[in-house]
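Bumping my old thread because nobody answered last time. Still need a sequence for this structure:
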């Protein structure tokens, strides 16, 4: 499987949870320069909520 972790050249949000009993992990890189990582289900949910509200599609480039 390809590495889907966001980078400055490949912006976005990536979440992984290999099994129901393992903790989720997540990372995000936005075109505005914001970067974040999280581990644990609650922290990853907060990362996704923050990304959705403030980054990625929430604001345009430029």
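Sorry it took so long. Here it is:
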């Amino acid at each position: 499987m390809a590495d889907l972790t966001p980078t400055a050249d490949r912006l976005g949000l990536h979440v992984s949870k290999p099994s129901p009993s393992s903790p989720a992990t997540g990372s995000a890189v936005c075109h505005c320069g914001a970067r974040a990582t999280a581990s644990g289900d609650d922290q990853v949910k907060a990362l996704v909520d923050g990304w959705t509200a403030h980054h990625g599609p929430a604001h345009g480039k430029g």
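Residues 44 and 50 are 10 Å apart (CA to CA). Let me know if any region looks off to you.
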